């Protein structure tokens, strides 16, 4: 059986969790981001898929939702296990994606919610100290490994897939925040006084939302999927998204 570890990961958390899960599975395994060139052929070849992604407001990043929808024919008859990573709470971060994939003929074999450091590094209220964040990552690794073991035994966990979780996700978040992930956004905020024109944000953006202007300063359009990758990548902390400025460093957490 061919199993594909598939992910969208703005800042590395979801990739890390899928990697740890896949390492614990003793089968022929492949790993791919939805951004990779050969991802479609890898999905076609796979019998089963481990799909990892970050939860945004008990919903999916729009880039992933669009990928699932625009490739809807790929999911028919696939066995899919979901890994939803989150900073704190989603209710049904896995359930929301499960319902979408089921519409396209997939069988959901299970799902887990894994707590990882919140990647919104410009929102002070959500930040924890680095030692605490390292503990969270260690715990996430254990959770992924345990889930993989249960998955291999045919007893995969089913976090977030029941009706009670659906209600929590809906009333806890989706009803109030759905506008945040309904359309691509006119973001991020760029402090051009601090920008040194290094191009790193331009190269890493999965939406090709950034470019350099004639003054060698970063500018954006309106295609932002809120992934925070540019915010984490900028060497001069010139980019912010939900907050005003970067207040925390997560660059050394996942190696
Ligand atoms: C726009 C946005 C919305 C988020 N919403 C939630 C949320 O509703 N609940 C939660 O627990 N974490 C939330 N987070 C935190 C991320 O889900 C979490 O840090 C995730 O592990 C990031 O994964 P990645 O590094 O693979 O992108 C949000 C992050 C962003 C950027
Ligand atoms: S502009 Fe930044 S936050 Fe928005 S999609 Fe691109 S990398 Fe992600
Ligand atoms: S990564 Fe930062 S410094 Fe480099 S071009 Fe982008 S905004 Fe400017």
Automatic annotation (TrEMBL):
SUPFAM superfamilies: 4Fe-4S ferredoxins, Flavoproteins. Keywords: 4Fe-4S, Iron, Iron-sulfur, Metal-binding. It comes from the Bacteria. InterPro entries: 4Fe4S_Fe-S-bd, 4Fe4S_Fe_S_CS, EFR1-like, Fe-S_Ferredoxin, Flavodoxin_dom, Flavoprotein-like_sf. Pfam families: Fer4_10, Flavodoxin_5. Residues 186-215, 219-244 form the 4Fe-4S ferredoxin-type domain. Transmembrane segments: none annotated. PANTHER family: ADENYLYLSULFATE REDUCTASE, BETA SUBUNIT, FERREDOXIN III. This is NAD-dependent dihydropyrimidine dehydrogenase PreA subunit/flavodoxin. It comes from Breznakia pachnodae.
């Amino acid at each position: 059986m061919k199993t594909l570890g598939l992910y969208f990961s703005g800042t590395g958390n979801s990739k890390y969790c899928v990697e740890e899960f896949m390492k614990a599975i003793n089968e022929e395994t492949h790993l791919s981001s939805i951004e990779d060139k050969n991802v479609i052929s890898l999905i076609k070849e796979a019998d089963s898929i481990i799909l990892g992604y970050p939860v945004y407001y008990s919903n999916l990043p729009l880039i992933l939702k669009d990928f699932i929808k625009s490739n809807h024919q790929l999911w028919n008859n696939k066995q899919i296990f979901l890994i939803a990573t989150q900073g704190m709470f989603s209710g049904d971060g896995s359930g929301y994606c499960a319902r979408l994939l089921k519409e396209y003929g997939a069988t959901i074999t299970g799902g887990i919610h894994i707590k990882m450091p919140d990647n919104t590094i410009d929102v002070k209220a959500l930040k924890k100290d680095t030692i605490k964040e390292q503990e969270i990552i260690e715990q996430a690794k254990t959770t992924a490994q345990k889930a993989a073991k249960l998955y291999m035994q045919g007893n995969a966990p089913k976090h977030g897939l029941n009706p009670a979780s659906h209600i929590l996700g809906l009333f806890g978040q989706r009803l109030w925040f759905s506008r945040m992930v309904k359309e691509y956004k006119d973001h991020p905020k760029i402090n051009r006084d601090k920008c040194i024109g290094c191009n790193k944000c331009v190269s890493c953006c999965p939406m090709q939302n950034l470019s350099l202007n004639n003054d060698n300063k970063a500018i954006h359009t309106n295609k932002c999927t809120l992934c925070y990758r540019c915010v984490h990548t900028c060497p001069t902390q010139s980019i912010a998204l939900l907050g005003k400025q970067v207040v925390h460093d997560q660059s050394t957490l996942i190696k």
